[in-house]
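User: Predict the structure for this protein chain, please.
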Amino acid sequence: MATYLTAGGSLLLGVLLYWAAATPETQKAYLFPKILAATMTVLGLAMLITTFVRHARDDNGMAVPWRRLLPALAVFAFYLIAAEELGFYVTSWLAFAALGILYTPAESSLAGTKRCLPVSVAFLGMLYAVFVLLLNVQTPRGILF
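Assistant: Here is the predicted structure, written as structure tokens:
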């Protein structure tokens, strides 16, 4: 039941965001929120369809692995709290690097960490290119950029 609620909620959120971005009052809004809302709507619909198909075939009711998800939720909470104070780019880099390091398999932890840091720097460069150069979106600026 929870997967149906999650998929339906995702679809509803995507539709509501698209409606909010496409109302006549916001016709001159940036294209980015509309693209994001449309993408969320399509992904929500795909989630709902996948949930129905999967549960029609198999209903094993596996539990959510909370112990495995808690570090990611902690990183996400840090990101939300620190982004405005530290800055969007630094916080994004820290969060991406932390997730990469946390979820690297234990047997290759050191090698995974060495590989994760340059990948997270490349991710930061892509964020800058997309938000500043391509979309011309103003990002939260903090004490560290």
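The radius of gyration is 19 Å.
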